[in-house]
Design brief:
This protein is about 35% helix and about 10% strand. By secondary structure, it is of the alpha+beta class. Strands 1-2-3-4 form a four-stranded antiparallel sheet. A hairpin with a 6-residue loop joins strand 1 and strand 2. The radius of gyration is 20 Å and the shape is globular.
């Protein structure tokens, strides 16, 4: 390869031409989402996640940034940010690896073989070590709730499940904006 940018272009094209659905962000090649399916014969089977990929300018010499957009219950994935704790991406990345390795090997291995001794999600790690059966059940609950195809398409937002949207009206028909008053009343 004569330059990192050519290698980046080639790796992204290989990923796009594979079986993965790739959605560019901001019409660029440095940021995109990839639809990732949970590995077969695991508690994650049937789950569909949107995984955000950000490629640094120095890619492939510097590793991509990988994060789950919709929620996943896993010891090595931060539940709020979706950040992934995976040595091969964070510490031992090599230009020999490409984006297909991330989705065909690294992420499936992460889901199949969690490392509860190096957690980003302490609750998941603790549950996995104490009660593997209950851990597997919670993983499946998260898959059902946050990782179905429509959740990946909608960025995994669960606001419709638990919260009232900002645009919804109050029960008496007023909207939130009608309730706002310019300035503050004196006490």
């Amino acid at each position: 390869m004569s330059s990192p940018s050519k290698r980046r272009d080639m790796d992204v094209m290989k990923l796009m031409m594979s079986d993965y659905t790739v959605e560019p962000i901001n019409d660029g090649i440095n940021e995109f989402n990839v639809e990732f399916h949970g590995p077969k014969e695991s508690p994650y089977e049937g789950g569909v996640w949107k995984v955000r990929v950000e490629l640094p300018d120095a890619y492939p010499y510097k590793s991509p940034s990988i994060g789950f957009v919709n929620k996943i219950f896993h010891p090595n994935v931060d539940e709020l940010s979706g950040s992934v704790c995976l040595d091969v991406i964070n510490q031992s990345w090599s230009p020999m690896y490409d984006l297909l390795n991330v989705f065909e090997v690294f992420l499936p291995q992460l889901l199949l073989y969690p490392n509860p001794s190096d957690p980003l999600n302490g609750d998941a790690a603790s549950l996995m070590m104490k009660d593997k059966e209950q851990y597997d059940q919670k993983v499946k609950e998260y898959c059902d709730r946050y990782a179905k195809k429509n959740h990946a398409d909608n960025s995994g937002s669960d606001e419709s499940d638990e919260e009232v949207s900002d645009n919804e009206a109050y029960s008496d028909g007023r909207s939130e904006s009608e309730d706002e008053v310019a300035g503050h009343a004196d006490p």
